[in-house]
Amino acid sequence: MTAIDELVYVLLEGFSGAGIEESNEGQSFMQNLLTVEGSMWRTVPQGGIRTIESIALHVGSCKVMYDEYAFGPGRLSWGDPEVQPWPSGEAPFDETIVWLQDVHGRFVDHVRALRDDDLATPRSTNWGELRETRWLISTMAQHDVYHAGEVNHLRSILAASDAWRWG
């Protein structure tokens, strides 16, 4: 396998990997998001500010911006509808899932088109800095898993079941 193949594998696993199927313990972003009940989507936890909906929109928006600046013309800005199709509080769950899959697929397709030699190539970030391609890809993989944990935790708090399964 090439380094690109391995990075694509990590991107796919962090975004939508099944995890441990026998115990239904998925750690990917989509596995956590797809277990959110409708009533939790826009609920702000006590003492919190962010909703699961706002986290999902953030993940997708960042993916659009990283893709746009690393692999595209670098013209979009945070307020553009391509970057966040719905205002916070108005994103329909099912449509958001489809949008997330689409923007993730676009990013992965750009990574698949690379050669291993491209990984050290500097590319633009949406804040104007140049970073190695491998750093941009790694950051996107980490970003999905980081926010998967947030969704998992918020979901547990909102369901009043925030205990370890084995504790």
Give the topology, please.
Blueprint (H helix, E strand, L loop, with lengths): L2 H14 L12 H5 L18 H20 L21 H20 L9 E3 L5 E3 H26 L9
Antiparallel strand pairs: 1-2
Properties at a glance:
167 residues; mainly alpha; Four Helix Bundle (Hemerythrin (Met), subunit A); two-stranded antiparallel ribbon; 5 helices; 2 strands; 51% helix; 4% strand; globular
Question: Please, could you describe this protein's structure?
Answer:
There is one protein chain. This protein is mainly α and 167 residues long. It has a domain at 51-162: Four Helix Bundle (Hemerythrin (Met), subunit A) (Up-down Bundle). It contains 5 helices and 2 strands. A two-stranded antiparallel ribbon has the order 1-2. A hairpin with a 5-residue loop joins β1 (122-124) and β2. The longest helix has 26 residues, at 133-158. It is globular and about 50 Å long. The model has no long low-confidence stretch (mean pLDDT 94).
Q: Mean pLDDT, nearest integer? A: 94
Biggest beta sheet summary: 2 strands, antiparallel
CATH class of the domain at 51-162, please? Mainly Alpha
**Main sheet strand line-up:** 1-2
Name the structural class: mainly alpha
Classify the beta-strand content into a percent band: under 5%
Global geometry: globular
* Number of helical regions: 5
